[in-house]
C-alpha cells in the first residue's frame, strides 16, 4: 500500500484488508500545511480506491509521541494576507476551512478508523483523534486541548466533536478552558478513549490492529452501514435516524452477506464467513 504513502504519512498493510496509517514528521509530528494536506489526501485516496480495505489503524511512527500539535511556523502565512480586514477574513476563512476538511477526513471515510495514541497528544492531536471512530491509548499517553494557551479557541474540530463523543461535560469544559495536561485516567473518565493499553507505542498499536483485524473479518456491507448509520444518528433525532435506517436497510437487507453469515454460523463445525470485497464510495 506504499502507493498511498506521502512524505509525512506512511501507509502499510500489516494484515489483509487492514491499513496502518502512521504520522511520520520527525521529531515530534508538528503539523505544517504540507503535513495536514497530505494527511487528508491519504484518507480521501483510500476512500476512493478500489482496494479491499475494511479497517484502518491510525498511529504515530514515532515511539515517544503521537503529535505535538501545530507547527507554529505554519501560522506565518497570516502576515501575508490582504491588509483590508474583510478581505483578510475571507482569505483566512478559506484557509481554516481547508484545514478543517483535511483533519476531518477519517470521519467522512466510510471505513472504520481506530486511532492508537502514545505519549503526548496535544492541541491538533486532540482534533485528529476526535474525528476517529475508536480511540485507544497507551498508558504513557498524555493529552491537552492546548489552544487557549496560545490565544485561540480550538477551531479544527475538538470543540465540535468532543461534546458529542464524550460524556462528562463539566470535565470537558474544565480541560478546554484551562488547557491543562491530563492523563489517560482522566481521558478514560471523560470518555475520550475506550481502552488504555499498558505499555507504549508498540503495545497500543498491536491492540488496535487486533481490533481492526476483527472488524475486517465481518461483512463489509454491515460494517460500512453501521458506521454510516452511527454518523447519521449523531446529527439527527432518534425518529429521523429510525426512518433513515428503514430506507437504508430496504436496500442492504438484500445483500448476499446475510446468506454467507448464516451458512457459516450453521455449518458443522462452524466456520469463518468469507465475504466479497466492497468498492467503497468516497462519500455516501
TrEMBL record:
For this chain's UniProt record, which GO biological process terms are given?
Answer: fatty acid beta-oxidation
Q: In which pathway is this protein known to take part? A: Lipid metabolism; fatty acid beta-oxidation
A Pfam cross-reference name:
ECH_1
For this protein, the record's InterPro entries field holds: ClpP/crotonase-like_dom_sf, Ech1-like, Enoyl-CoA_hydra/iso, Enoyl-CoA_hydra_C
Q: Which GO terms describe its molecular function?
A: delta(3,5)-delta(2,4)-dienoyl-CoA isomerase activity
One Gene Ontology CC term in the entry: mitochondrion
**Keyword list, A-Z:** Fatty acid metabolism, Isomerase, Lipid metabolism
Q: For this UniProt entry, which segments traverse the membrane?
A: none
What the record says about family reads: Belongs to the enoyl-CoA hydratase/isomerase family.
The name under which this protein is listed is ClpP/crotonase
Question: What organism does the UniProt record list as the source?
Answer: Plicaturopsis crispa FD-325 SS-3
Amino acid at each position: 500500500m506504499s502507493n498511498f504513502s506521502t512524505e509525512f504519512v506512511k501507509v502499510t498493510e500489516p494484515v489483509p484488508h487492514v491499513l496502518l496509517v502512521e504520522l511520520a514528521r520527525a521529531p515530534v509530528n508538528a503539523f505544517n500545511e504540507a503535513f495536514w494536506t497530505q494527511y487528508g489526501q491519504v484518507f480521501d485516496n483510500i476512500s476512493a480506491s478500489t482496494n479491499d480495505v475494511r479497517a484502518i489503524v491510525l498511529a504515530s511512527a514515532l515511539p515517544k509521541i503521537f503529535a505535538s500539535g501545530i507547527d507554529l511556523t505554519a501560522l506565518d502565512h497570516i502576515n501575508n494576507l490582504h491588509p483590508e480586514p474583510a478581505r483578510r477574513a475571507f482569505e483566512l476563512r478559506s484557509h481554516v476551512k481547508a484545514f478543517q476538511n483535511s483533519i476531518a477526513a477519517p470521519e467522512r471515510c466510510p471505513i472504520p478508523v481506530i486511532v492508537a495514541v502514545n505519549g503526548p497528544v496535544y492541541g491538533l492531536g486532540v482534533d485528529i483523534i476526535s474525528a476517529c471512530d475508536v480511540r485507544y491509548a497507551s498508558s504513557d499517553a498524555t493529552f491537552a486541548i492546548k489552544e487557549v494557551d496560545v490565544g485561540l479557541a480550538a477551531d479544527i474540530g475538538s470543540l465540535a466533536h468532543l461534546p458529542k463523543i464524550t460524556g462528562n461535560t463539566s470535565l470537558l469544559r474544565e480541560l478546554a478552558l484551562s488547557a491543562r495536561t491530563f492523563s489517560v485516567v482522566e481521558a478514560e473518565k471523560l470518555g475520550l478513549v475506550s481502552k488504555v493499553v499498558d505499555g507504549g507505542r508498540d503495545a497500543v498499536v498491536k491492540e488496535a490492529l487486533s481490533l481492526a483485524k476483527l472488524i475486517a473479518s465481518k461483512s463489509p456491507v454491515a460494517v460500512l452501514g453501521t458506521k454510516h448509520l452511527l454518523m447519521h444518528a449523531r446529527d439527527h433525532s432518534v425518529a429521523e435516524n429510525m426512518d433513515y435506517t428503514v430506507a437504508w436497510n430496504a436496500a442492504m437487507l438484500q445483500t448476499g452477506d446475510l446468506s454467507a453469515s448464516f451458512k457459516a454460523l450453521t455449518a458443522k463445525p462452524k466456520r469463518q464467513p468469507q465475504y466479497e470485497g466492497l468498492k467503497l464510495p468516497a462519500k455516501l
